[in-house]
């Protein structure tokens, strides 16, 4: 099965009279979330691909450039849904036209079958190498063993989200009111051993595509992702071992209850913010902290003081804990924005409140000098 043949059959049963360029764009919208500007087929990315180019694709097949740009961002579930929206007669007629290419196609499974065909065509057009039957069997056994051995660890490392660049599919799915994992474990560098630091938990689609991809560039990208995940896990483990006032939950909750009309601007004492965050190095962080400090500082301070007086938090202990978090991250060589993010995430994990309110707490302690030292 090639693209030209499949496109012709799909147009016959799904185009509703649309011309070739229009229907081609429709099919692309069903099979990938890559926008037309990202197809890489036009010298000017702000312009749409020429209709004549799309007609050529329908006659000669997809270009390698287009296929490579979409192969890791396919959405077969959308194509399946659109086909399954057709009535039974329409699906049966489509299945009959495809029966010569797959004798198992029926009105019930034509959506899944067409999506599989389209994915294989795009993978082949992108230059990915298909496997022999024996290679597939060997790979399936390896994947099964790796998932049983390292699956839980790698799933936690990825925080239940596919870490493949450009993908954010959940690795946990809900079916029939039951929660189940939906991931595979794959080798990053296929020339190296199957050890935890060379493995990633991926969604089934990214796993299946990368299995056929021997690109050194993609391997390098995934090694960088793995490095980030490992560093992130180490930081989380370190921070989880450091104490944090249980009363921080009350602080974050009360911040959520405040209204902006009650906020008053505050001066940037005790230390000017510019002495702690260099605008030239961390411009966005500087602007964000400054704005939030101006709006929230007095309110957060009042909340802290009131909770301290009532014995719900020990403000001095909380100050020391925040400073300890900062010092530990600083010793690890983390940047200011990484430190800000990690402390915010720790408060988020403990309080289970929205991250933005947890960030307000960190903004407060930046201004109070528990987080970030003065620049020397």
Task: Give the SSE layout.
Elements lengths: L2 H12 L5 H12 L19 H10 L3 H7 L5 H9 L3 H11 L11 H16 L7 H25 L14 E4 L2 E4 L2 E4 L11 E4 L1 H8 L4 H25 L7 H9 L26 H27 L5 H17 L4 H16 L3 H13 L9
Antiparallel strand pairs: 1-2, 3-4
Helix pairs in contact: 1-3, 1-6, 2-3, 4-7, 5-7, 11-12, 11-15, 12-15, 13-14, 14-15
**What percentage of residues falls in helices of 4 or more residues?**
55-70%
Record field, number of beta strands: 4
Q: What proportion strand?
A: under 5%
For the largest sheet, list the strands in their spatial order. 1-2
The topology string of helices and strands comes to HHHHHHHHEEEEHHHHHHH
Q: What's the rounded overall pLDDT mean?
A: 83
Structural class: mainly alpha
Q: Any idea what the radius of gyration is? A: 27 Å
Largest sheet: 2 strands, antiparallel
Shape call: elongated
Give the distance, in angstroms, between the N- and C-terminal Cα atoms.
67 Å
Tally of alpha and pi helices: 15
Uncertain runs are 42-46, 258-271
Can you tell me the number of structural domains?
A: 3
């Amino acid at each position: 099965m090639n693209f030209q043949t499949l496109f012709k059959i799909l147009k016959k049963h799904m185009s509703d009279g649309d011309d070739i360029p229009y229907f081609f764009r429709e099919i692309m919208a069903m099979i990938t979330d890559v926008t037309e500007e990202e197809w890489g087929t036009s010298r000017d990315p702000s312009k749409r691909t020429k209709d004549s180019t799309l007609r050529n694709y329908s006659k000669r097949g997809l270009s390698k450039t287009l296929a490579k740009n979409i192969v890791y961002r396919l959405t077969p579930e959308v194509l399946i849904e659109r086909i399954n929206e057709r009535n039974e007669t329409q699906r049966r007629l489509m299945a009959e036209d495809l029966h010569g290419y797959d004798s198992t196609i029926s009105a019930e499974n034509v959506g899944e079958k067409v999506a599989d065909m389209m994915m294989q065509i795009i993978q082949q057009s992108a230059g990915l190498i298909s496997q022999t039957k024996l290679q597939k069997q060997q790979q399936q056994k390896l994947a099964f063993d790796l998932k049983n051995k390292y699956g839980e660890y790698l799933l936690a490392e990825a925080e239940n989200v596919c870490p493949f660049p450009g993908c954010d599919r959940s690795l946990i799915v809900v079916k029939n009111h039951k929660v189940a994992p939906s991931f595979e474990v794959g080798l990053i560098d296929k020339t190296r051993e199957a050890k935890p630091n060379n493995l990633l938990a991926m969604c089934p689609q990214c796993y299946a595509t990368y299995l056929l991809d021997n690109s050194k560039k993609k391997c390098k990208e995934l090694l960088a992702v793995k490095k980030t995940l490992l560093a992130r896990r180490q930081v989380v483990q370190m921070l989880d071992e450091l104490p944090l006032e249980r009363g921080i939950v009350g602080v974050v909750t009360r911040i959520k209850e405040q209204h902006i009309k009650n906020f008053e601007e505050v001066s940037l004492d005790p230390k000017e913010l510019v002495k702690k965050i260099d605008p030239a190095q961390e411009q966005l962080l500087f602007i964000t902290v400054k704005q939030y400090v101006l709006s929230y500082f007095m309110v957060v301070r009042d909340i802290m003081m009131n909770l301290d007086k009532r014995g719900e938090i020990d403000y001095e202990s909380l100050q020391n804990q925040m400073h300890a978090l900062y010092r530990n991250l600083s010793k690890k060589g983390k940047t200011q924005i990484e430190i800000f993010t990690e402390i915010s995430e720790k408060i988020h994990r403990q309080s289970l409140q929205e991250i933005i309110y947890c960030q307000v707490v960190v903004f407060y302690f930046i201004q109070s000098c528990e987080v970030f030292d003065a620049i020397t």
